[in-house]
Amino acid sequence: xxxxxxxxxxxxxxxxxxxxxxxxxxxxxxxxxxxxxxxxxxxxxxxxxxxxxxxxxxxxxxxxxxxxxxxxxxxxxxxxxxxxxxxxxxxxxxxxxxxxxxxxxxxxxxxxxxxxxxxxxxxxxxxxxxxxxxxxxxxxxxxxxxxxxxxxxxxxxxxxxxxxxxxxxxxxxxxxxxxxxxxxxxxxxxxxxxxxxxxxxxxxxxxxxxxxxxxxxxxxxxxxxxxxxxxxxxxxxxxxxxxxxxxxxxxxxxxxxxxxxxxxxxxxxxxxxxxxxxxxxxxxxxxxxxxxxxxxxxxxxxxxxxxxxxxxxxxxxxxxxxxxxxxxxxxxxxxxxxxxxxxxxxxxxxxxxxxxxxxxxxxxxxxxxxxxxxxxxxxxxxxxxxxxxxxxxxxxxxxxxxxxxxxxxxxxxxxxxxxxxxxxxxxxxxxxxxxxxxxxxxxxxxxxxxxxxxxxxxxxxxxxxxxxxxxxxxxxxxxxxxxxxxxxxxxxxxxxxxxxxxxxxxxxxxxxxxxxxxxxxxxxxxxxxxxxxxxxxxxxxxxxxxxxxxxxxxxxxxxxxxxxxxxxxxxxxxxxxxxxxxxxxxxxxxxxxxxxxxxxxxxxxxxxxxxxxxxxxxxxxxxxxxxxxxxxxxxxxxxxxxxxxxxxxxxxxxxxxxxxxxxxxxxxxxxxxxxxxxxxxxxxxxxxxxxxxxxxxxxxxxxxxxxxxx
Length: 710
Known about the structure:
Layout: E1 19-24, E2 27-32, H1 37-43, E3 50-51, E4 58-59, E5 72-75, E6 78-81, E7 92-97, E8 110-111, E9 116-124, H2 128-140, E10 144-147, H3 168-171, H4 177-188, E11 194-197, E12 200-205, E13 211-215, E14 218-229, E15 233-235, E16 248-250, H5 251-260, E17 268-272, H6 276-287, E18 291-297, H7 306-314, E19 319-321, E20 323-329, E21 336-341, E22 354-357, E23 360-363, E24 367-369, H8 372-380, E25 384-386, H9 396-413, H10 423-432, E26 451-455, H11 465-469, E27 475-477, E28 486-488, H12 498-502, E29 508-512, E30 521-526, E31 538-542, E32 548-558, E33 567-572, H13 575-578, E34 583-584, E35 607-609, E36 614-615, H14 616-624, H15 630-637, H16 650-659, H17 681-684, E37 700-701
Parallel strand pairs: 1-7, 3-7, 9-10, 9-14, 10-11, 14-25, 16-23, 17-18, 17-23, 18-19
Antiparallel strand pairs: 1-2, 3-4, 5-6, 5-7, 8-37, 12-13, 13-14, 15-24, 20-21, 21-22, 26-29, 27-28, 29-30, 30-33, 31-32, 31-34, 32-33, 35-36
């Protein structure tokens, strides 16, 4: 089998991982110790994990976060989510084709009493919000338990190789997400009153105010005084032809494979969605050596930060606004994508279709908060707080700050003498949640002498690290407002390049006329491998909007530890373009050329419910017949009845009701499932799976057991 691992990366170190031998459908494969089955399969070139029993449709990953069940495989005889289960030496993995047979059981298992753990505060989620809240609670002396379903703390921070926006003081602006995760974990480990359970999934909040936890396969009960939900968000899906083909998956899944597991899951990527998530994922793809064929966004402008969009365009990625995906094309997996321009009524316009060759379609069309635990805790009277995306979808910088606020609020609620939450904390949190503000015409007029930083950020966003690092305090924002735009206000710049290196949007360059007034030196930030560029190379430089300015020679490539893995590339350029240079093209134009002919799929497989393969046509017919109860819809079609627990399709089903002109007030919603995810029944009885950690409590023999099962 072909191998698809990332062997060098400009930001991430390549670990010396221990190999693990397993088999896929009888073929020997090699994985890495600690990685999931899904990642190991992708590293061996496997993208189709099985076929659906209903219609034989090929199945692959979608969320890679345990929220859906598309990646289910059979490992050592048991059906498991491949994105959540580590590969083990000698493991026999097979595709899930049809319904798996139940394994034979030849003896009664040992059962152990289910432990009950008391704590002051239970935090569900060890991401940016959960970690900062736990640090505040640790500092206040509150007994705290943090549970997270991953093998390490940090949440989405561990997938974020880019630098953060905001301010240095409030949220480590200018520091990469992966490094922030390590710093927060280090701070958390200082407090002995804070415990951490990894590989542990919160299952449900019960009516007796207890919370069920599946900890490394063992079931236990936590009895908290206060619950903090910082479980993050799940990605939204999108309905289009071919939307469930292997190769169509979310940005979180892509970043997990690339930035966490250093697997190259694709060679040609197309992105649907122009928010920050999609734009950043495109940049991460380029850093991993993946061709980004294009990005389409239904709105007239991308919803993410303009500096993210500009950065992507400057590197050679075309962005198609007012466009939507028509279909993903292919047999067993994605082979191409067809997009089209949309009219004012959001309908694809005939004759505007374009098809692009790609093997992966990355869907980044928004997030929904994971807030089920909040609703249940309120229903049963358990004091509960929410932070981060579980409270409101925003940037991770805002999540960190809301986590701090909630931690202090909970400490006060539990009687700790910690004082009031400072009013400026709330103001900072609100600013960090701010949507992008006005876009202002770039002013690049400077004297043609000396050395000066130039700011290619023309949109008001919460960001100011460049003002903090200037040794001469010559960079300021008018009025001190973090949402304002920086400007050089001093008369001294010694070309230290600190502002160039720290900018999260790679939107600062430095022009130096001191040696040559006609051909000044321009310093451009560059976050790709040092092997990809060298002194003497001729590179294509572009302006902020991606327009080509010309070809110039590289005079120096500077690596410095203080620049945090950001290369300083110096080029000599004619003075008439020097101040307009904003970036260096990374990807050649031919990568993004459309295919010769439009290739729409012939069969209509616009699936709404992924787990049960229920189409939009089936649901529309029932809506038109007068159906208004989603539980009745579930009984008739099984939509929402699958293994994901109705996490993906409800919003899509409600969208179909809206499209059919049915107001939401007439719709009876789904009855929520009591459990967050599927769990083997044996776990509730105290049975531990193979490979679970040892337990000190003596076993009790299962009663009522007989040969062949329980």
